[in-house]
Amino acid sequence: MTSKQKKRIMIGYGIYYVCLILASIYCGIHQMEGLKMAPVAAFTCFLVPLCLKLLKLKSTSVIVWINLIFAFIASILGSMLGAYSLFMFDKFLHFFSGVFLSELSFMVFCYLREKTQFQDKKEKILCLLFVNACNMMIAVFWEFFEYACLIFLNNDAIRHTTSGVHDSMTDMLVACVGGILITVWIFHYFKTGKKNFWIHLNEEFYHLNFNS
Question: Which residues contact 98 (CB under 8 A, 6 or more apart)?
Answer without folding.
Answer: 135, 139, 174, 175, 176, 177, 178, 179, 181, 182
